[in-house]
Amino acid sequence: MKGLKKIRKLNRITMKKLGEKVDVAESTISLYESSKRQPDFNTLQKIASYFKVSTDFLISGFDRVSLSHNIQKVIGNDSYEGFAEKTNIDLDELISLCKGSAIEQPSLETINKIISNNTHNSYVLDHVLLSDAGYLDEAFIMKKDEELLHESVKFDNKIKTIESLEFHTPEDAMKFILEQPVLMNFGGYDLDKMTDDEIMALAEDLLLTMKIGIERMKKKQK
User: Fold this and answer.
1) Contact 19, 28 (CB under 8 A)
2) Alpha-carbon distance 6 to 15, whole Å?
3) Contact 110, 89 (CB under 8 A)
């Protein structure tokens, strides 16, 4: 079973632990991984369900059906011939991947060529293509990079919001104050007893402190 060892190691689970989960001996799992023995249908289903992958992935090391579906998404309205020429992928190989009839796992080079021409579904589909093709480590790294990028964009947007923020009413100021979790946890004041002017002043002081912190951070990054 070409895919079993890949998925087991990615999930950092021992053969003994996996055996306990699917009711077989550790030595049996070892035989499955070396393809010296094949599991019965029920055991195969248990393993696939435990790792949330297809039985096809466990047996062949890649998911033909899902990979076929997602490559078709990337190709979009392009023809097989046009996409093969554009990506320099062998036409017969591309057709077999698209039809879900490929016997051998596609090379990482082939999958990267497809990813580099993924103009229809952008970054999200890229790590799925890698995973479907059996390149789990590469898919995991790309997914983490995607998450970091997303967090970075969110952080940059928050900074831009703070830098351009102004309070026109006490209600605006109050809303801003209530959105600051550190201040809310610290306490030491009673917002209900503060005047509108005091609320505006508190919000302005908080905003100024945050802007000073942003400027310091930017200087450190230069």
Assistant:
1) yes
2) 12
3) yes
CB atoms within 10 A of CB 171: 11
* Mean pLDDT of the region 17-34: 94
* Amino acid code (one letter) for 184: M
- For 54, counting Cβ atoms within 10 Å of its Cβ (0-12 exposed, 13-18 middle, 19+ buried), the class is middle
pLDDT digits (tens, 9 = 90+) for 74-113: 888 889 999 999 999 999 999 999 999 998 899 989 988 9
- Separation between Cα atoms, residue 126 and residue 140, nearest integer Å: 11
4-60 classified as CATH 3.30.420.40: no
Domain ranges in the chain? 4-60, 64-142, 165-221
Tokens of 120: 């229809």
